[in-house]
Amino acid sequence: MYLIMTLSWNEIKRRAIAFSKEWEDTSNENADAKSFLDAFFNIFGVTRRRVASFEHRIKKLDGHDGYIDMLWKGNLLVEMKSRGKSLDRAYNQAIDYFPGLKEHELPKFILVCDFKSFRLYDLETDRIYDFTLKEFYEKINLFGFIAGYGNNVVYKEQDPVNIEAAELMGRLHDKLKIIGYEGHELEVYLVRLLFCLFADDTTIFNKNTFYDYISGRTSEDGSNFASVINEIFEVLNTTEDKRLKNIPEELAAFPYVNGQLFTENLHLAGFDSTMRDIVLKCCTLDWGKISPAIFGSMFQSVMNPVERRNLGAHYTSETNILKLIKPLFLDELWSEFEKSKNNDNQLKKFHQKIASLKFLDPACGCGNFLVVTYRELRLLELEILKILQKGQRVIDIKQSSLCNVDQFYGIEYNEFPAQIAQVALWLIDHQMNMLFSQEFGEYFVRLPLEKSAMICHTDALEVKWEDVVPKGQLSYILGNPPFGGSKLMSSFQRNQVVREFGGIKGAGVMDYVTAWYIKAAKYIQDTTIKVAFVSTNSIVQGEQVGTLWGLLMNKYGVEIHFAHRTFKWGNEARNKAAVYCVIIGFTVGNTNDKRIFEYEDVKGDAHEVKAKNINSYLVDAPHVIITSRSYPLCNVPEMSFGNMPLDGGYLLLSDEEKTEFLAKEPQAEKYIKPLISAREYLNNEPRWCIWLVDANPSDIRQLPEVKKRVAQVRKLRSGSVRKQTVEKADIPTLFGEIRNFGETYIVVPRVSSENRKYIPMRFFDKNFIVSDTCMAIPNGNLYHFGVLMSTMHMAWINYVCGRLESRFRYSKDIVYNNFPWPKNPTAKQVEAIEKKAKKVLDVRTEFPESSLADLYDPLSMPPALVKAHNELDKAVDIAYRSATFILETNRMEYLFDLYDQYIATLVFKKQLPKKKNNTIPK
């Protein structure tokens, strides 16, 4: 019997990593198989020739001699092949040798290998394990029988960690909370379990140490599960020399962790069989493959969905995180690496530089941005060390690796995600250390944990960021602060925003995220710190632009150095909260390298455009702030709001209600008018109103059904808390606000789908009543209609218009009154626009059964209408300039420049030459 001097698992792992590195380029069976297998056994402290023989001869069934590449009688048979050869064929060859072996010589395992790929067959359990040379150290426990660790224990093949893991942790959270284990202790408990699950799969613990202990030491009913878990927590917090001498060997196998993670004493939790099963099921998932996105999903699954939006818990794909960190700093660092890599001294200085960088996420959530940033920094460090260590046989990777988690700072409102963020950085640090181990052939693990990220559990808008990290030490600020709009904020949050803005006009309707922009701008004064935030695109649209960017640029000297224009922000979480976002990078003072990332499809990939300047609308154009105007910038008809009923619906009728109403009171028909409201107007749905302007009082008295409705209007207005509404109770026969638009006018819906290429507008006459869901342009003519229905005007809308969710919310004071109309168009140009506008209207009449919503749906828009609009676009474009506009951004650059000219001169020239006849179509 061969006695093995058992090596520690850490030593075996170290040797396995070195083995993988040494043999990574080997490929030939005949030349290298024997040396390879000798080295393989040496990993486990075993001299191969003392247990196994090469070229073991046996007699095959066909009478010919066969030669087994390597046989350890009763244990292991190995068949080697040259790289790329079939492992299935190698296995079949091995099986063919069995009839020539005696009973006691039959192996328990077959290993087939082509130097790059391994396949281990466990013949007693019928399990098969596939892995590569690079992954060998992760599967080292499968060969415990070689090292003398007794029988190989069979474990279920693990599934990659996915959303199931988040759901399982969420279920455990809920069950512990139900029994009264909640709050801070519950959160700490779950974070500790998370660490143990990860450690069990990533060589922090010996493989499956955690699973073995809790599955083997606990009752199936879960009655002693909590006490066994606490035993593990206590051991993880105790140095080896301070532990009791008589604790079980399996418990002593857990390493000392430190890092304060297991320091706090927690009350004993309570488990039942279901809760025990949840934890054991978690163990079957491969936590070693965890990605930062999982932390977001995990956190979402255990939070109240209502709270999630309020507290800004948006969970982000790594792809979207990279959209921010690459232009913020990563691209620049890689460029500097390329310039330094051929000069060792410069490269060493560069290495010191990246190790000195410090990062702050002031709304860090579960730490996704910090985790991905750290991972990318370590990957860059790996490339540096590959060059600096080239040619060295022995290196001390622990001393050579300079980057660490203490370069990272975070602020998080909720305690649970703050704890996860800190642990997540330790986990990604270990993953990167394993990658370094593979590359340099030296086992590299940082235990006990000596350094940690500084994650502060507090309100980012209530704490001084200087107290978290002095700004003289900081390099970058990044993240995705809470997205909530003004209507979704609490009064406390709204007051926070107003305070950050210094109480300026308009601060009360700003999105919550804008407070982070202002706070960051104050913090980075007199520094070179660069900032980048993800935000909803509302902060570069509508009225928010003037309030936010006017303050940032004019008071704090902020300049935008890169921007991702609007794209759909996805995430890895359940019930994805997809929103339309921008990413904006800024700093104090100018920068030479400015980049804009454009999206032809908001769900697609971006293409990069170099910019001379990036304004507050994220366009390469002069700094322009569009603020509310009470009258148009150019000489065009004024736009007006529609009529506001203020009636509680009592003066409004659907088509069916109108029929029923007139059946009861046919005399009221002369007071029933067609009502134009945005939804019905776009979808050809008839809508009516009781219009009593200039009605004879005696008529009203003789119409009891009308009187009933008028009485309800009076009651509604009288009961209002608004003084203005109560005053309107004295005239209940009329709409709350009434406007006269004359004989004909252009109607513009206030809200329209962002999917339409054009906002559908239309002419109406005085027989229609326009509601306040639409805007109207009295005296608007074909020229005005043509320009407003053009791609030029839509470009202006896309950039300047505010949004209701993702839909356009047209504003007369921001959009219409500031729109720069063509400068001094010729009579010929005006006539061309009128002609093409008339063509658009004519084509519409060819489809009487189709609504405007049908006609302007991108998927159903008739080719004839598409052609008519293309011709109109060309006519309008020529009125602006002769050169062709290639991209929408080209249009905006031109329009912003034209707007700048109009504002600078304040000379409003007449836009429309006199014409003999300026007819309006019916």
From TrEMBL:
Residues 184-262 form the MmeI-like helicase spacer domain. It catalyses: a 2'-deoxyadenosine in DNA + S-adenosyl-L-methionine = an N(6)-methyl-2'-deoxyadenosine in DNA + S-adenosyl-L-homocysteine + H(+). Gene3D superfamilies: Vaccinia Virus protein VP39. Its EC number is 2.1.1.72. Residues 621-823 form the MmeI-like target recognition domain. It is an enzyme of class 2 (transferase). GO terms for molecular function: nucleic acid binding; site-specific DNA-methyltransferase (adenine-specific) activity. InterPro entries: DNA_methylase_N6_adenine_CS (IPR002052), MmeI_C (IPR046818), MmeI_hel (IPR046819), MmeI_Mtase (IPR046816), MmeI_N (IPR046817), MmeI_TRD (IPR046820), N4_N6_ade-DNA_methylase (IPR050953), SAM-dependent_MTases_sf (IPR029063). Residues 827-907 form the MmeI-like C-terminal domain. Keywords: Methyltransferase, Transferase. GO terms for biological process: methylation. Coiled coil: none annotated. Residues 337-597 form the MmeI-like DNA-methyltransferase domain. Residues 15-177 form the MmeI-like N-terminal domain. This is site-specific DNA-methyltransferase (adenine-specific). It comes from termite gut metagenome.
